[in-house]
Every structure is written in C-alpha cells, then in structure tokens.
Automatic annotation (TrEMBL):
<feature type="binding site">
    <location>
        <position position="216"/>
    </location>
    <ligand>
        <name>Mn(2+)</name>
    </ligand>
</feature>
<keyword id="KW-0620">Polyamine biosynthesis</keyword>
<comment type="pathway">
    <text>Amine and polyamine biosynthesis; putrescine biosynthesis via agmatine pathway; putrescine from agmatine: step 1/1.</text>
</comment>
<keyword id="KW-0479">Metal-binding</keyword>
<feature type="binding site">
    <location>
        <position position="218"/>
    </location>
    <ligand>
        <name>Mn(2+)</name>
    </ligand>
</feature>
<keyword id="KW-0378">Hydrolase</keyword>
<feature type="binding site">
    <location>
        <position position="135"/>
    </location>
    <ligand>
        <name>Mn(2+)</name>
    </ligand>
</feature>
<dbReference type="Pfam" id="PF00491">
    <property type="entry name" value="Arginase"/>
</dbReference>
<feature type="binding site">
    <location>
        <position position="139"/>
    </location>
    <ligand>
        <name>Mn(2+)</name>
    </ligand>
</feature>
<keyword id="KW-0745">Spermidine biosynthesis</keyword>
<dbReference type="InterPro" id="IPR020855">
    <property type="entry name" value="Ureohydrolase_Mn_BS"/>
</dbReference>
<dbReference type="GO" id="GO:0033389">
    <property type="term" value="P:putrescine biosynthetic process from arginine, via agmatine"/>
</dbReference>
<keyword id="KW-0661">Putrescine biosynthesis</keyword>
<feature type="binding site">
    <location>
        <position position="112"/>
    </location>
    <ligand>
        <name>Mn(2+)</name>
    </ligand>
</feature>
<dbReference type="GO" id="GO:0008783">
    <property type="term" value="F:agmatinase activity"/>
</dbReference>
<keyword id="KW-0464">Manganese</keyword>
<protein>
    <recommendedName>
        <fullName>Agmatinase</fullName>
        <ecNumber>3.5.3.11</ecNumber>
    </recommendedName>
</protein>
Amino acid sequence: MRFDETYAGNMFIKSHQNYEESKAVLYGMPMDWTVSYRPGQRFGPARIREVSVGLEEYSFYLDRELADVPFFDAGDIPLPFGNPEKSLAEIKTFVRKVLADDKIPVGMGGEHLVSLPVMEAVYEKYKDLAIIHFDAHTDLRTDYEGEQYSHATPIRKIADTIGPDNVYSFGIRSGLKEELQWAKENGMHISLFEVFEPLKQVLPTLKGRNVYVTIDIDVLDPAHAPGTGTVDAGGITPKELLAAIHEIARSEVNVVGFDLVEVAPIYDHSEITVNTAAKLIREMILGWVK
C-alpha cells in the first residue's frame, strides 16, 4: 500500500488523516495461513477497527486522549492468500518504510507469525532491541509438523536472530517440554503463568533499551477472550494485562514498535475479545507513543 492512497475501509477511532504528521502507523496483517487449530485471525484487524467506534477517546488510566497522539491508520497490508513466505516479505517491506520515516509501527494480526518480519525489520534499525512477549504459548518451536514458518515458531526465530537473552516472555502456560528447556538453557527470560510482578522486576533492567512488544490475545483467559484460534485455560484477566501495559508506559524503556495478534472474530459471538483488543490498542498507543 502507498501512503498517498486513501484507505476506504473502516478506520480506528480518532486516527489521524495525515501520514506525514503522524508519530505512529497502525496497520493490519490479515493472515492465518499457518494456524494449527482454528483459523479466522485474518478477519481480526477489520473487526477491531469496526468496534473501536464504541471506545471512549479518553483514558482514565493515563489521563490522555487519542487526539493527543497523532497516529495514522494505513489499513490492511494486501497479502497473497495462502503464501506465508511472500506474505512475510510484504509485511517486512511495509514496516521498513514506516521505520525509515521514523514512525512507530503498530500492528494488528492475524496469526502470531506476522510479528516475525516486523521484529526483524525493527532489529535492522535498533541493534540493541529487546522483545517483550505476552502469550499463553512459548512459540519456541523450530518447526510445526515440518513447517518452519508457523505461528508456533516466531519467538524462537527472533530469539535466534537477536539472542535469547534479549527476549522476555510473560504469561506462558503451554508448550513443549523441550521449548521450556531450551529457553532455560539459553538464557531467555520466561515467566510462567504470571505477568505483572515478573514484568515489574524486569523493566528496570531494560532502562534506556529499545523494546518491541508483542501481545498474543490468548495470554488472556478464554473467559475474557474466547475469540482466538488456540484457547488455553488458566490465563490472566484484562485488568492484569492493562496494568502491565501501564507499567511499561511508566517505565524508562523506549517502545519502538508493538502489535496485538491472534484475534479471531468468528469465535467471538459476544464480541468480548474484539472490544477488549480495541481498548488494549488504545491504551498502548496512549501509553507508548510519546
């Protein structure tokens, strides 16, 4: 997509009309080509935009409103259906352009594999990059059923690229025994089940660092986020995740990009998940785009 084109779809509430004047760029990555259980994540970005009109523009938590933060909604990246590798290449090209213009990429998925090319592009620009990862699953497999490009592999691939000691995972409660063992043996920071307290302890050690944050909506318990592809019981509440977002906002890390992925509206009959996702994105934009 060219940024001089007019996006004809629904736009996230209070998004700015001018790309050049915006500090951040919101975009969708409508892909679910490699999911291993329930597909439908490609419809997440569009539905999150649609329900965002029901949001208040003001955050009680941060005493800030969306009008204070100029962000541009670029719409969804056109991705070739069923072609993971070409789709990842298209995403990376798009994000490189955003970064070259000194803007913060704000992504909406899509399955979690879409985060990989974004993190790689961000690392090209920021060599001291650290990854903060919220998820139910480790996503540390080298492949899934022989497929190297899978929604079960992005964190392992970025860890191999930037070094496992620069990856911090929170809320993990599902994965292979071998994945957890690999994380422990290679110096990756992984917090099982919990999010807020472990994050609070880690953030001072990242003071001054450039950080990319990726949130898989299934870090939330299915009671709070049923609209996702791979539900896993025992998760955290939206209140805990909001507290983590605000703790990052209060910290001295430099958030240079972030995303929220794995929202699948087809399983979200009460629209709990998409409305929660829209609020989380509002809080991330208000808290992390300085």
